[in-house]
């Protein structure tokens, strides 16, 4: 029997509500499909920071490295400096474990009232592939003359050939397994150094995939197109910052941010990959047991797919579809089902 070890990091806000819902579904899937899943909980995040002065212990990555995968909620609390969570937790894990692919599928599920008029599930089925370890989010920069009225601030973007090449290869290879189309989204007409370089390297990589449909689009236009013609997109290949924004937009056009799953993936499996819903800790609805657990549950399915349990992963996604198509919807989708009720319905549909 295959067995997998999972580090579970619920995090803050609704994290400790949606992640147990996801774990319950994963346990049910393991039982049904005959594999073993062991897990250990880690209390890292902004709450942990308030108690210890750290988002996670200094040796946390050494500890986490021993697991097959990380299953994560979100970090951040209103009373903790919001420049810290990404720096002290999320990016540390993404960079430390070389999770250079941020994989974010967005699909309109049958039965979900999406916000776009006249669009059906066939029209919205795309994946945002966001470069996850460099670009605009390297956090290199600083404040200059901060003590004077006219201060200055910089954040430098860093793009490397290696970083662009590997995310481009991943995107073209993924497209071949889907509808065979890559849209490269940048803003190389104005970021004429970094993103023009990105486009050039993508163009070079593309020469190895000339049978894949390819389009280039600027991010402003891509935003408009995602709302007007989402059917144009299959795989969106993009940078860290642009991908962060477009994947929330892609989540929104599928009905709710609460539905979107993601994987922070190290494709070579040299390090564990991390799976998390695309949303944050949603402190505005935390503690009410009404958070939508679908993004977290679906992220669990992505994790199983990455681990090689494809049948179980597909079954979870099918069970999610059946659940929402059956009208079991959370508050953010206009329903009244509570977090654990949705998880239980998904388990029943498995
Ligand atoms: P958010 O995604 O937490 O919330 C945005 C809106 O969507 C809120 O109205 C929220 O109630 C709603 N929402 C989000 N997830 C939902 C769910 N599962 N079910 C129902 N409604 C849901 O984004 P926001 O408000 O910008 O950030 C809140 C905190 O989360 C901040 O501290 C931020 O830094 C952190 N954050 C952490 C992330 C991570 O750990 N990967 C990612 C994004 C934000
Ligand atoms: Mg985001």
Report on the architecture of this protein.
This protein is α/β, with parallel strands linked by helices. It has two domains: 1-107 and 256-350, Isopropylmalate Dehydrogenase, CATH 3.40.718.10; 115-125 and 134-253, Isopropylmalate Dehydrogenase (3-Layer(aba) Sandwich). The chain is built from eleven helices and twelve strands. It has helices at 15-33, 46-52, 60-64, 84-96, 161-177, 194-206, 219-228, 240-253, 294-307, 310-325, 339-349, and strands at 3-11, 36-41, 69-74, 101-107, 125-131, 135-144, 152-158, 181-186, 213-218, 235-238, 261-265, 273-277. The chain binds 1,4-dihydronicotinamide adenine dinucleotide (NAI) and magnesium ion. The site of 1,4-dihydronicotinamide adenine dinucleotide has 22 residues, from helix 4.
Overall tally of structural domains: 2
**Compounds present?**
1,4-dihydronicotinamide adenine dinucleotide, magnesium ion
> What is the class of the largest domain in the CATH system?
Alpha Beta
Strand order of the largest sheet: 2-1-3-12-11-4-5-10-8-9
How far apart, in Å, are the first and last alpha carbons?
20 Å
- Strand fraction equals 15-25%
Shape: globular
Tell me the helix content.
25-40%
Low-confidence stretches: none
Main beta sheet: 10 strands, mixed
Query: Which architecture of the largest domain does the CATH hierarchy give at level 2?
Result: 3-Layer(aba) Sandwich
CATH superfamily descriptor of the largest domain = Isopropylmalate Dehydrogenase
CATH topology of the largest domain: Isopropylmalate Dehydrogenase
Number of helices: 11
Task: Give average pLDDT, whole number.
Answer: 97
- Give the number of DSSP strands: 12
